[in-house]
Amino acid sequence: MNKVLVLCYDFSPTGGTGILRTLKFCKYLPQNQWIPVIIHAKNRNILKFLSNSPDIMFNCRRYSSLRSKLFEYIGILSDRYLKSYRYIFLPDIHIYTIIPTFLKVLNISRREQIDLLYCSCSPYSFAISGVLTKKIINKPLVVDLRDAWTLNPYEYYPTILHRKFDEMLERFVFNNCDSIIMVADVIENKYIDKYGETVSNKIHTIPNGFDSLDLQLIEPENDKFIITYTGSFYGIRKPDSFLKGLKRFVESNKPNDIEIHFYGNSSRLVEELVNKYNLSRYVFSHPFIKNKEVYLILAKSHLLLFIEPSSATPTKLFEYLSSDRPILAIIPEGEASKLIRKYSIYSCTTPESEDRIAFFIEKYYNSWKNGLFKIHSTRTEFMSEFNRENLTKRLSNIFDHLCNQ
């Protein structure tokens, strides 16, 4: 068995969808002859949690934590000052942890006789720590970008100089790592256009996916028509257009058997908009829920709401698609819309199309009202392509290739 050192910021089964990518890789890597040695910055008590959770147990050779007061203070700063910290901290708020992280990773790598380094980003500072470690121990480095770095549409740069400096750091990592993993072809193509041969021979796409063991195969109840959204709102990702469309539908139909449920960390924003549009009778806001609960919530829904202003393909999309429920997608044309059209009963529209949003809500509502609601199953083809187990096999093949060169 080979050993891969996995460096990530968070590694919690109760964390967000981005964290699940790394956790599920580590769950299935031992099946492919790779033992993960996990180093992360949060959740000191996770090992106890894992040992009591047979559904997420995996063979982990060693557990180590980077948790410190420094990480805690940095997290507080980033939450309080948001855009202001970008004037000072590049590539991210964790820049001052690069050297401490490097020393920790170097120590564990030598002690455990690591065969390969794997960094899950963001934060991108971890990738710099990974490059420094690679230069000392001379082992392959794989950098997994869960989101685009400098090409991220949500990224904020105070000046062009800040962007140029961050691009310099990105180029440093790309030049010195052995493989770069992207989550979507569209991101891979953008980076190939930007850096050309520098990345074209080392870049790969492994999409986000779902774990078939998490699926909940149940029928939704029929006393209410349930629309569900899971995830948070931030930046330009907002529910305004959907709620405006919902208001038009409600004013035209006066329904008494429809509920819209938002699950995530945006309760205040949702409640403000709900009150603004006088929709409190229909819309309910809930806190963030654990991954296992997500699948149960989706299975109890009749229509899933997907809002994404970019062409990103987050883990949430694969959770939606694996549920076999219709999807109302408010998105631009791109990678996400292609997947939805291929694997789901869908209605895609843009944020500006409030009339179309109202029309689609009415369409699915009337279908349910008339007893025509049916689950559309593409499970066999979809499971084969996007199952976490199969995606991890693709990752392990990259590991094997790098170690056998």
Automatic annotation (TrEMBL):
InterPro entries (alphabetical): Glyco_trans_4-like_N
Keyword Electron transport listed: no
Sequence ranges assigned to domain Glycosyltransferase subfamily 4-like N-terminal in this UniProt record: 88-211
One Pfam family per UniProt: Glyco_transf_4
Assigned keywords, A-Z: Transferase
Any GO MF annotation of the entry: glycosyltransferase activity
Keyword Transferase belongs to the record: yes
UniProt protein name: TPR/glycosyl transferase domain protein
